[in-house]
């Protein structure tokens, strides 16, 4: 541990000495290092926190788990935090203020009031978007011009804005009409090769009107659709407009990255009955409690399956082999269903399938499950016969496996589709629902058939 | 179906009439539409395939599943395919040639030989990288200059390269020394505001040497680490250098997007026992076969658990309640383990944890599992007592649940860490291994304790 601490201190020293460059630490690294420091050496932690300039402070604060952010807003003076918020791009500033609001509403209000009027306006606009809307991921800082402007005057304006630190990470110039409606997007790589005496209209004509037609998202679009668009068209940034086509802001690829990674984590966690937000906290309690909720739901479904078994207690007493074999039927069903479920959840998330494909998707999944059901039913029928020497037992387990794997394929596909149809995240709770089906059908078909055929 | 077909034809018509712009289709959309067309109307399909220019043909071909690509290389003349490969960026050209090689080695050789010498050289370099190396994701097309060049001459060169279509999606100029070693990366947004009579050295000095120090990946770096770097530093593109620091190429964010999405899909699929590459095919057979392999492995582990139950057949005959309750112990263990497993697999993939954190991660996961184990063991003990009226049965199930959930947390964390240590994808097979542990421990502890305490 001391070795790790020393290493961290050394890295932090280097970072603060050398500034940006090959050896520097990302905001995420800084937050991580500060987290470890805080655990072991509060003084050193406070010392390095002090060293962060307002730019870095904001970027690091966004990456902090709640308990560290809470500590930060209690110990760092308001004016320094306000300055840090100002330095962030508008989307990040809004996020940070929202995180602070979740912890301490009054503090967030205080901070908001101490911001410049412009920032207040921007944040007020952005804060109203729902979590999954494109607007929530958009930054209002962008570089735009009118069609009749001369390139040289556009560049002069750009130079001033850059000097003032108003914009950064600019890849294209958005061209708007007099009503602010987005008309074109011209990449900087195209602008830089033109004669600066030309006006934008000439440039658009020369390059070809089609070429500069912009890809744009509407502010209320679902961010997952925007991410798909950015990915499919290999965009470096995408314009965001309102329903009337007025340019409001832009979404940069770093936000798309964050979205892709976070939503994949969310899917994997939700499929496993884990809450992604609770896991981010550093405390065991929140994560443990969120997991306990899913375990509780699972306990209830397990009790339902158990009560199905309970219906057949006399059958099991007569044939104890049934107790030995029944978990196999349930387990194979669960696995087959999970395969169909994972594929459906993921393809829905990446927009590879939608409701127009429902029949084809269900047909495909059920076919695979049914064919594998036939194969493994035959195999397991033979094994059961050899193991217990009762041919009818082999028949019973084979039939029940075909039934259960067929249902597994069907419900593994249907459950996420239905959840999606009701606008519920298809990854949430679908595993538990599916297991309930495969366990219930598995135990009921196996024990029911056994009672009917064997006794 | 006809309605869907008509819609697709209409969209394709629009695309080919209007060219790029708001209504256009991405290469992925085009491939998807062509796939549906091919299924229902071979003539129309051939007709639209014909209409693709060589630029689009290459981009669409990359998105095609194997059987369509196979059809394409059989029906489209070699020179048109070769031209399509030439038009792609070097990383995509290499990928496409590799896909073709997987289908028809001779055809790939023919195509390779008909490429221009420059393209041949570039592809030969890129094709040698392993799938997970940064080099495999890199394109060799980039914009670089020497430190003593005048900005105006750099821009003139850039203008010519753009006219020739040699480079696109350029966001920064890489500055190299006389040995080709990467020194600086200057964003276009900075270049465009400088006086073109300055030379690059002045610009770097004016902007600040620290500011232009480039982030770079080594060509043999693992792509997942590069993706984390791009994400953490919000980069729009990252330079790739060799071990000596010589600039080789760059990786753009679209490749990082693809990587993030593909690796998330791979993790979700692998956790569920699904092979991501087999699923991409349009045929049921390959996907079904790959899934059958995992079901077979699961059958073997289920047989192992069943044979554990078989050891206690006399105990179950004496107490049929055991058969009713035993799946609950196994199911709760499986779920608890899956929670720990999903969190560990995902955090390893996103580099949130590494081997230096092993103790802390295991401690956290085991603690959560153990505490939840205590809670649900108590609850289930009471339920079992009320259900069957045997207090010792409640004690037995409670103890076995604590044991099983503790093991579930421990092995759910340990299994992916060990797989990773041996350089095996932590998502592959870990679910099956885990279920084997939780089923075996669950059945053995529950039935063993029952035999010991109840009989």
Automatic annotation (TrEMBL), chains A, B:
It is found in: Cell membrane; Membrane. Keywords: CBS domain, Cell membrane, Magnesium, Membrane, Metal-binding, Transmembrane, Transmembrane helix, Transport. Its main location: membrane. Residues 209-266 form the CBS domain. It holds the Pfam family MgtE_N. GO terms for cellular component: plasma membrane. The chain crosses the membrane at residues 292-312, 318-345, 366-388, 394-419, 431-454. It comes from the Bacteria. It is a multi-pass membrane protein. Acts as a magnesium transporter. Belongs to the SLC41A transporter family. Homodimer. This is Magnesium transporter MgtE.
């Amino acid at each position: 541990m001391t070795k790790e601490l020393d290493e961290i201190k050394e890295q932090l020293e280097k970072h603060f000495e050398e500034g940006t460059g090959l050896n520097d630490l990302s905001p995420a690294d800084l937050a991580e290092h500060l987290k470890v420091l805080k655990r072991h050496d509060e003084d050193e932690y406070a010392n390095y926190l002090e060293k962060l300039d307002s730019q870095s402070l904001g970027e690091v604060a966004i990456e902090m788990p709640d308990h560290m952010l809470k500590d930060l807003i209690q110990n760092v003076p308001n004016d320094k935090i306000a300055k840090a918020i100002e330095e962030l791009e508008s989307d990040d500033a809004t996020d940070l203020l929202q995180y602070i609001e979740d912890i301490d509403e009054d503090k967030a209000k205080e901070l908001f009031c101490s911001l410049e009027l412009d920032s207040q306006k921007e944040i007020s606009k952005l804060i109203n978007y729902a979590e999954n809307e494109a607007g929530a991921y958009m930054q209002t800082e962008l570089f735009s011009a009118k069609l009749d402007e001369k390139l040289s005057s556009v560049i002069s304006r750009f130079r001033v804005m850059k000097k003032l630190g108003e914009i950064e990470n600019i890849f294209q110039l958005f061209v708007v009409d007099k009503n602010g409606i987005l008309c074109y997007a011209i990449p900087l790589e195209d602008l830089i090769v033109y004669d600066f005496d030309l006006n934008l209209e000439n440039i658009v004509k020369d390059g070809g009107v089609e070429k500069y037609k912009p890809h744009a998202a509407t502010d209320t679009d679902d961010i997952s659709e925007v991410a798909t668009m950015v990915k499919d068209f290999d965009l470096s940034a995408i314009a965001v407009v309102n329903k009337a086509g007025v340019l409001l802001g832009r979404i940069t690829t770093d936000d798309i990255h964050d979205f892709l990674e976070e939503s994949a984590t969310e899917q994997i966690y939700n499929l496993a009955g884990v809450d992604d937000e609770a896991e981010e906290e550093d405390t065991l309690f929140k994560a443990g409690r969120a997991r306990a909720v899913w375990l509780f739901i699972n306990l209830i479904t397990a009790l339902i399956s158990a009560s199905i078994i309970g219906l057949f207690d006399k059958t099991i007493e007569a044939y104890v082999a049934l107790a030995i074999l029944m978990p196999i039927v349930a387990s194979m069903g669960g696995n087959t269903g999970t395969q169909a479920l994972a594929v459906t959840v993921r393809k829905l998330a990446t927009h590879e399938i939608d409701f127009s494909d429902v029949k084809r998707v269900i047909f495909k999944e059920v076919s695979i499950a049914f064919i594998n059901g036939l194969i493994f039913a035959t195999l397991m029928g033979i094994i059961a016969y050899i193991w217990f020497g009762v041919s009818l037992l082999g028949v019973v387990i084979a039939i029940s496996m075909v039934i259960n794997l067929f249902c597994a394929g069907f419900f593994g596909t249907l459950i996420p589709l239905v959840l999606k149809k009701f606008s519920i995240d298809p990854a949430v709770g679908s595993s538990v629902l599916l297991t309930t089906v495969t366990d219930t059908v598995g135990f009921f078909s196996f024990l029911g058939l056994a009672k009917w055929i064997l006794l």
